[in-house]
Design a protein that fits this description.
Elements: H1 11-15, H2 23-41, E1 71-75, E2 80-83, E3 90-94, E4 97-105, E5 113-116, E6 121-124, E7 133-141, E8 147-156, E9 161-163, E10 165-168, E11 174-175, E12 181-185, H3 192-197, E13 199-204, E14 209-214, E15 218-223, E16 232-238, E17 243-245, E18 248-250, E19 253-260, E20 264-269, E21 274-279, E22 282-288, E23 301-304, E24 307-315, E25 326-335, E26 342-346, E27 364-367, H4 378-384, E28 391-395, H5 415-419
Parallel strand pairs: 2-8, 9-18, 11-19, 20-28, 26-27
Antiparallel strand pairs: 1-3, 3-6, 4-7, 5-6, 7-8, 10-12, 12-15, 13-16, 14-15, 16-19, 17-18, 20-21, 21-22, 23-28, 24-25, 25-26
């Protein structure tokens, strides 16, 4: 059989066909196929001029690679020092809406706040702490859903002048149903709304609780009626950084919890010269008493036991009675007013006085022995069965009603007056 020549192939090519098999024509075909494959995977092959229109996501939708038009604005500026604790922090968004804002201190405690004005503004819901460094992370989106973020830090001012509150009752205590939450401030307050906003009192079971100012240095909280027995009460003080008066800032951040024990309300009838002790609404004990003499009558009204002393000194000169009395060892004394009203043991009056005559200088007296050693006396029994916060109500005395701020005695105001 006659061999046919290989067309288009030189002798040199024939000699090297083991390494260049297929020749340049086949190579061109392969390169063309590869180009076609790349083009197919990459879409149209148009670079898009940098506008992203040529790119598509997995769903076939064009992805937008333009920068977000939203701009996050933060005041104060980054790394600002000596920043005011109120009114200085404000976060906004131009050409977009805020979607997320986080403000926290170096311990990771977040500042509560809310986005308002349709996403245009974020502001804290309360003041910031003093002498504290904060970091801000805010995100906004433009109309196309593209995100923009900004991070800053700032440090609040270090106060030169401060105030604190002294509170009643103590943390962890168990108290009677009449115990209000009472705070006295070390400096007179000229911004009461700001201070009160930084104090929160809650109860479980929940009841409405309102605060009332007595002057500019005392704020009490209570419900409409006495606490229910067993109630758990929480006081949260967030005074750190509150400007209570110009240039004077609070420095407390504290949580106080106490429990309301059993209900005990004792009613003193000054005319009948007896006291009926009610425990959880039922008569527990009836005790003969002596109240204020006709010239030194006992206040009427609802009074709360605020202090207890097994033995104390009572000097008439400290409460406006001159030198009429100075008893150095009054037993089983429980304070009912700031002005000096007590319910206490009385060993100097004859036993027949109790239940038959009113002879005191305004206090409520119960039979006792000197030194208070006898646990069976009415005074000892009442002392040992009473706790701070128990209520003593005096009625039928020829005197006026005690003032609400004279002791822990805000119960002598109506609920409507209290809320004013």
């Amino acid at each position: 059989m006659k061999r046919q020549p290989i067309l288009g192939t030189s002798a040199g090519a024939r000699r090297g066909r083991g390494s260049r098999r297929g020749g340049p024509g086949l190579l061109a075909l392969l390169l063309g196929a590869m180009l076609l494959f790349v083009t197919a995977c990459g879409g149209s092959g148009d670079s898009g001029g940098g506008d992203g229109k040529g790119e598509k996501d997995g769903a076939g939708k064009a992805a937008d690679t333009k920068a977000s038009q939203a701009v996050v604005t933060i005041a104060p500026k980054d790394e600002a020092k000596n920043v005011a604790t109120s009114g200085a922090l404000r976060i906004g968004a131009d050409k977009g809406k805020l979607t997320s804002v986080t403000v926290e201190d170096t311990k990771g405690n977040e500042v509560e706040g809310k986005i308002t004005a349709g996403g245009a503004v974020w502001e804290p819901t309360h003041h910031l702490a003093a002498a504290t460094k904060y970091k801000v992370h805010a995100i906004a989106k433009d109309s196309e859903g593209r995100e923009s973020a900004k991070d800053t830090t700032f440090t609040t001012l270090v106060p030169k002048n401060t105030f604190v509150s002294y509170f009643t009752p103590e943390d962890g205590s168990t108290v009677g149903v009449g115990m209000p939450v009472s705070l006295r401030f070390s400096r007179g307050i000229t911004a009461p709304e700001d201070v009160e906003k930084a104090i929160k009192v809650t109860a479980e079971p929940s009841v409405p609780i309102e605060g009332h100012w007595f002057g500019n240095d005392r704020l009490d909280f209570r419900p409409e009626k006495y606490w229910a027995a067993g109630t758990k009460v929480t006081l949260k003080l967030n005074l750190d950084g509150v400007e209570g008066r110009p240039g004077v800032y609070g420095k407390q951040s504290k949580t106080v919890k106490f429990t309301v024990g059993r209900s005990q309300v004792s009613v003193v009838d000054a005319s009948a010269k007896k006291m009926v002790v009610k425990r959880d609404g039922k008569v527990f004990k009836t005790i003969p008493i002596t109240a204020g003499a006709p010239s030194t009558t006992t206040y009427n009204g609802q009074m709360v036991i605020s202090e207890k002393y097994r033995v104390t000194r009572m000097n008439g000169a400290t409460v406006g009675f001159g030198g009429e009395y100075d008893i150095k060892d009054v037993p089983h004394a429980m304070r009912l007013s700031t002005s000096g009203t007590f319910i206490h043991g009385n060993y100097w009056a004859g036993a027949g006085t109790f239940g038959s005559a009113n002879v005191s200088h305004g206090c409520v007296g119960l039979r006792d022995v000197r030194g208070g050693w006898d646990k069976q006396t009415p005074a000892a029994w009442f002392f040992n069965n009473s706790i701070l916060g128990d209520v003593v109500v005096v009625k039928n005395s020829h005197d006026k009603q005690i003032q609400p701020d004279n002791g822990l005695n805000g119960w002598n105001m109506s609920w409507a007056e209290w809320k004013k």
